[in-house]
Structure prediction request, 575 residues.
Amino acid sequence: MSIFENLPVSLTQETVLNTPKATLSRDQILQASGLLIASIILLITLVLPLYTILSKSVEDQQGGFIGLANYIDYFSTPALSMSISHTLTIAFITTFIVIGLALLTAYALTRTCMPGRGFFKVFLMAPIFAPSLLPAISLVYLFGNQGVLKGLMFGETIYGPIGIVIGLAFWCFPHALMILVTALSNTDARLYESAKVLRTSGFRTFMTITLPSIKYGLISASFVVFTLVITDFGVPKVIGGQYNMLATDIYKQVIGQQNFSMGAVVSVVLLLPALFAFAIDRWVQRKQVALLSARAAPLIPKKNPVKDWTMLALCLPVPIIILTVLGMAVYASLVSFWPYNLSLSFANYQFDLMDGGGWEAYYNSLEMACWTALIGTLFIFYNAYLVEKIKGLKTLRMLYHLAAMIPLAVPGMVLGLAYVFFFNAPNNPLNFVYGTMAILVICTVAHYYTVCHLTAVTALKQIDNEFEAVSASLKIPFYVTFWRVIMPVSLPALLEIGSYLFMNAMTTVSAVVFIYSADTMLASVAVLNMDDAGDIAPAAAMGVLIMGTCILAKLIHWVFSHYLLARTQRWRAGT
Prediction:
């Protein structure tokens, strides 16, 4: 029997690593303290606000407990309860349309030699740079009462379910496309070679090989689109007309009627389908198995002129629609006075003359986006490092990881309203944060936390734990290793997280519409306010400005990351 078997694990590690006990104890204390502080921050910025909104939903206007009376009142009011069926109907229709178009386009991009694939891959991502308000405003100019294409509506109106479906399909399309392109890219070519040898028809090959191999990607994309549709606020607010949906009901109850208790009830109702979709998606992903083995061969599409040009003809309407919608928004922002004076000018960009916040709102958005990208990236990545790399504290790390998954299922409207109830409470010692730039940054980071956390964890899983072991043997503190080794190695993931946070901070509306103040007006909220005031052209101009800023930021990110990675990541290319 070895004399080391009866020793504590930590003591055995210290003996093997020849490291003093004090150094390891200090590192362990710092790591545990960091994870505990991060857990407390997540508790304050996410869990407690959500608990507050649940509590508010069972209280009256004076704060007294009334049980389920608010819910009974809600479901007994036809105009309010009808919003549930409206929201689910729009969600199912939009999801069906988006998944069908995204699957067709993703198949053409990954399985054919369609001409212009590179252009398609870049251009089809354009809607993701625009706030959801912008396509809705553009649809008003295209198919509204004075729209250039209103004759194509055949007597129907764009203000209602038709406009909501078109606007949401436009906005959600890139999200589904990215997931399905990834799913279709991971396929073993040997399966298709076997089908070809067996003289299997193309249709049967698609049904028996392609679809089963991407079923998890299809399900995941479907739930992503479904969640985005039921939680979006911008499109139904601008073009929904009298067609009530859950997200707009929250806004009407809180802003229009100052009925915060009923707003909390609608928030909880909106939270349920989002949580259900999230739970199903998590369950499906757990059942997913690896589709590529070590012997798998990559599938490289071969030229087939008939197939390639047919797919081009089928996919061409998608970029044409994107170009039409975004082009109309840009054109409308430059028209002097629609539809009577179509001369072009920059008068609509004189935001200081409009009701909406002026240019200060745009500068506030830039400031908020920069702080969100900087603080959020460092905070999320460091906490992901503590969850993934430190030893011990297994229960706390597991609970933190589970808590980090919650924001993905929480709609922005719900989180924003929860922040109002929690941070604006007079007895809350953090009340001083309410109405400042800080609360906007905190809310935005919390809203988009999950995707960034998963990105960071994925990057950290690819780094061998030997880095920490070697650092400990050299008596180097873990935070030095994190700063000088882990962060430089994970630079691509850090840049992606920062870019993701910046663009979402610029375009978000739902999460911040309740918590901004007169001094912290944001550009995305200014679009909403100008549209409410009837200044549709200036609203389009501000939306175009936001989109242009996001595109410019993405270009800067690409150039900077390409230059920086070329100088600091040459080791990735090998010798």
Notes: Residues 26 and 75 are 56 Å apart (CA to CA). The domain at 79-291+302-348 is CATH 1.10.3720.10 (MetI-like fold).
